[in-house]
Amino acid sequence: MSISENRKAPFEVFAKTVEYYPMVAVNIILKNAHGEYLWIKRKNNPAKGEWWIPGGRIFNGETIEQAAHAILKKETGLSGSIQYISNQYFEEIFDTRDFDEDDQKIYPKHITHVHYISTTVVIDLANLDTVNLDWQSSEYVWSSEILSKHKYLQNYFESCKSYV
Predict the structure, then answer these.
(1) The whole model's pTM is what?
(2) Residue 14 has pLDDT above 60, yes or no
(3) Are 83 and 63 in contact (CB under 8 A)?
(4) Does residue 12 sit within a domain?
(5) How far is the C-alpha of 18 from the C-alpha of 22, rounded, in Å?
(6) Residue 5, pLDDT score
(7) How far is CA 74 from CA 55, 60, 91, 107, 145, in A?
(8) Are strands 80-85 and 55-57 parallel, antiparallel or unpaired?
(9) Number of other CB atoms surrounding residue 151 within 10 Å
(10) Which of 26, 29, 82, 107 keeps 20 to 30 A from 70, CA to CA?
């Protein structure tokens, strides 16, 4: 299977996957030379309107490392070197019943939850390139603080605490 350059499965495939199976994903804690983390404000669900970290699905035949680099490049235009891959996996279940009409264009209307099994990687920024956000994010900020109290984000940082 070849992975789409825009990292999207055809809607019919995505819809059936979301309906029947958890998706496997990787979350990225990106650090710059000042020890700050990249935070992006989500424009779509799950986590719409929240400060989050880059992340996305791992495609069939793709390693965690390959997925992390591809997702980081797609979502931010940045690159870096992986410093750590957490050996912990987290179960994330997002309720879709409150998703708005725009989100219903992404997720099938009849499903009630989006389910992920995810891990986390720590990547050190390669250089101070400009951040180029994709369509999923509205703004970004670098911060040495963890900007969200969301339990999933707390899990990501906790699982990598020796590296962040």
Answers:
(1) 0.91
(2) yes
(3) no
(4) no
(5) 7
(6) 62
(7) 10, 18, 24, 20, 24
(8) unpaired
(9) 10
(10) 107
